[in-house]
# Entry
Amino acid sequence: MRQYILKETKEVGKIFCNKCGREIAVHQGRPEEDVLEVEKRWGYFSDKDNRVDSFDLCEKCYDEFVATFSIPIGE
Ligand SMILES: [Zn+2]
# Structure
């Protein structure tokens, strides 16, 4: 005899770069190219008390974004 349990799984269906809007190909829940995934919960000492912001950037938009920094990123 077998007893089964119902498992609910969640996987990524689609990813869009928030900056350029391009869709990142996803295969079986995994992106087929690397992206920057950001999730930030703003704390009490911000103007966004406890708000969660999230976004994704493709590699090209990431490169453009970090190029605007006054201090270059480290490696
Ligand atoms: Zn992009």
Observations:
- The first strand starts at residue 15 and ends at 16.
- Strands lie at 15-16, 23-24, 26-27, 30-31, 35-41, 52-58.
